Amino acid sequence: MVDAPSANEVPALAERPVQVTPLPLHxxxxxxxxxxxxxxxxxxxxxxxxxxxxxxxxxxxxxxxxQGVSLERLTLLEERIRQSPARDRVSIQxxxxxxxxxxxxxxKHYDRNTIITNPFKDEAExxxxxxxVLDDDCAEMGxxxxxxxxxxxxxxxxxxxxxxxxxxxxxxxxxxxxxxFVLNEYNITYHTFGFPLPTDITMKVVAERxxxxxxxxxxxxxxxxxxxxxxxITEVFVKYAAFDKALLxxxxxxxxxxxxxxxxxxxxxLNEIDA
Length: 275
Description:
The strands form 2 sheets. This protein has a 6-stranded antiparallel beta sheet with strand order 5-6-8-9-10-7. By secondary structure, it is of the alpha/beta class. It has helices at residues 33-38, 45-54, 71-83, 103-106, 152-172, 245-263, and strands at 23-28, 42-44, 61-65, 90-95, 120-122, 127-131, 179-190, 200-209, 218-228, 231-244. The mean pLDDT is 88. Helix 2 (45-54) runs parallel beside helix 3 (71-83). Helix content is 27%, strand content 27%.
């Protein structure tokens, strides 16, 4: 008969490492320092880089890289994570800036000024979707930034880019010739403050008006809505048209010369290209 081991002889159970769930951490641009300073779970990109260098993050983090962080800054942050002692405890969960819409659709020359992602069609809902992706250095962030909420002009410009990009991509691209856009009516309603958090954008076509002159123009009435945590914070109604660039350019030139004639009646409204 084998004697039972004494209390001192009982083998100790192997200690299992405690699994700590990564903390979701919203990373925002440095211009939103007030928002980051006043809210838990939010940090500016510069402060995060400092904590990574010092290995001072208190627990594992799943980063949601959001408003204000440019693609270039995201690349730098990824390198800082790789070099940090905390690299095994920090991961990037979301970074929508990676899918920033091409400037050919938003009519922007500088990438930093495109503030939406590439729109896609939601067939089930019969609308178009995109996301807000602000860059700290974009035109709309150049002045009068509170550091807490998003300025109203951000939603105006993002809705404008949304209608341009969706129309270019889903209506005009297959036609294969350049178009000019004309805004006829623009109404925007702000329901509540928007903050530097993940922001969904939807665009729904309310009406597609016919081209009575058969010029190939596209006439649309649309509604663009912005959502944060499932709540509509801003909605925009727009009536606009897209015209063949060659046709509208000639019309625009004539109208500009007629406007000059009103200022200086001695000028002729016509020149060689009008003859």
